[in-house]
Design brief:
mainly alpha
Length: 107
Amino acid sequence: MWPSRTSIGIFSSFIAYSSAIALVCGYAADGMTGGWMAFLLVLAWLQFGAAVFDVIENVGMLKMLTAGSVATSTLPLLTTICASLKFLIIIDGILLGIVGVVVKWIS
């Protein structure tokens, strides 16, 4: 069975946002030296990890919606951890990427 258009659109949005934030971090890292450059490059690559966490979170939530009672399952804990890590990586990438670009344009 082929995936629906909705699921293709959702999963392609993971690739789009992670690539966009990674490009901003990579652009901000270009021309920097030392620890900031390394940190921004690692953060750029972590954006693709955030997309994987997003997929795990969404699949887990869909399983919880279809399974009914999940009070004894570890699935809610797994989806909470994945969502927390995802948002931490994405927010750091956006904020530090923007700050890095502004610093790059100023100097």
